[in-house]
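quick one before i forget lol
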Amino acid sequence: VQLQASGGGLVQSGGSLRLSCAASVRTNNNYHVAWFRQAPGKERTFVAAISRSGGYTYYADSVKGRFTISRDSAKNTVILQMNSLDSEDTAVYYCSAGTTVLSSIRDPTQYKYWGQGTQVTVSS
């Protein structure tokens, strides 16, 4: 499985960005897809995930209400819509795919496949 993350960039505080994770295979009904982020000098942390069925979504408390994860099954793509961005959201964002149990969907060690990362920079 190959994943291609895109859509990062520089945005002002309060702005929006739309990240895409394009997969080389069909992920709908096969893989959970999650976004993680890593700021300089910090650990990689969970941002959002969507279950393989698309029926469940999960968010970190810090992004709940601002970010939305969704699937475009026709394009084998998972979208992360990010609104009301602030400087704390600055990081490299990675998408990942895996088949872990739902109780472990926030754990980065449970994901076998990773994209290359896309930089998100929010200026204050």
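fyi Residues 77 and 104 are 22 Å apart (CA to CA).
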